[in-house]
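Why Glycosyl hydrolase family 13 catalytic domain-containing protein? Reviewers of the renewal asked for a concrete example.
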Amino acid sequence: MIYFVMTNRLYDGDRANDIDINPADPKAYHGGDLQGLIDKLDYIKGLGATAIWKAARP
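Here is what the prediction returned.
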């Protein structure tokens, strides 16, 4: 199974790089980052995913 992820919306793994985020606004950045994706790899694997398809950064 392929897990498609929009990194910006998954998980904020490094709050030091948060610039102009607003999780309440569906059109705004939510703070997710590459570190957040790394932090959630076990979770994604637990879902049964064997590959990750990362959306291009907007």
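Residues 21 and 29 are 5 Å apart (CA to CA). This is the kind of structural detail the renewal will allow us to pursue systematically.
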